[in-house]
Design goal:
BirA Bifunctional Protein, domain 2, globular, binds zinc ion
Length: 431
Amino acid sequence: MVDMDTLVSLCKRRGFIFQSSEIYGGFGSAWDYGPLGVELKRNIKNVWWRDLVQNREDIVGLDASILMSPRVWIASGHVEKFTDPLVDCKSCKRRFKADQVGDRCPECDGELTEARQFNTMFKTFVGPVEDEASVAYLRPETAQGIFVNFLNVQSATRRKLPFGIAQIGKAFRNEITPGNFTFRTREFEQMELEYFVKPGTDEEWFDYWLEERLSWYKRYGIREGNLHLREHGPEELSHYSKRTCDIEYNFPFGWSELEGIANRTDFDLHRHAEFSGKDMTYFDEETGERIYPYVIEPSGGIDRAALAFLVDAHHEEEVRGRKRVLLRLHHDLAPVKVAVLPLLRNRPEIVALAKEIARDLRPHFVVMYDDTASIGRLYRRQDEIGTPYCVTVDVQSLEDRAVTVRERDSMEQVRPPIAELKEMLLDKLAS
Ligand SMILES: [Zn+2]
């Protein structure tokens, strides 16, 4: 498996991920996605949305605001319970998670304060006055935007149980110990589904979504041996959860959570009914009763998924005595689908034909044209960013109107007529 230093270096060199505010020395575990990283992330979000919303009749989408009424976070329990026990060093003033240190400061051996609860929500002020009445929070999860809109969505779409509401968006947590590159950051992007079911059917729906989400990661290329499930023990369950199971990935820094599946019961709808005074129940036409649906929540991190897909796709092999580095990314996830490369960059007719081919392909998928190095080096660059197909235009192309198409993983080459190139690539990319 690739080590983190190698991956971080590739990400920077090829334009996947940069350190935030790098020219100022960087900023606390924040990261910027470069030209290839933004494509990878968009592709992950697109396939998630396609598989969960577009291809299903029982799930609809939502895009709620990041800033919400602070009462949402009182009702959800986050103001009271979304805390970490922390200790401060009296000498060097560093702050640690209480359960990660002993009696003395691990940095300077200074004396530590008593542990106290530290809320991990980011606080801000809305409007011109900075007082208690204007406090708002950056959402620590997208889920609450779904719960508070449950009635709006249900009545607008006339959905019957079971049905789900899906959302992709940023969330923020003031983590004390962020780290491992993009794995744990204070600002991150979530893909969350809240799937509302009849009470009593929640346990079987939990199993359904666990299986569904596990197979989703495999479908997009994560090797089975690098995935496993970890059941939360009773002492680590969140305050709202009846059962939680994490899908973990075998990262270079150890097995860590990729996505959590939680049975949130009817906790959130109950609490919002209580705190808002609104009726948050669902009318069950079959029984004529008003009920609080139970909720199964598959909640995944897009940054973590991107990191896992990169780690899993990274391969090194030896070809004719030379090291070849490639990302075997699934076609749907690869940032660039096709590279168009002129064999000789000092032959204007070849360059012109290659540019024309690239222009014709661009409306159909992401294409990169590159003539800044020799063909061997151009291939290596495309391998390293996971481009599935390279199209090479050579002298003969000017005569026979055909090009060489090279496949990333097998390096096999075929030579289709330019007239059939687009259809051929569309076919191959869809498979
Ligand atoms: Zn200290």
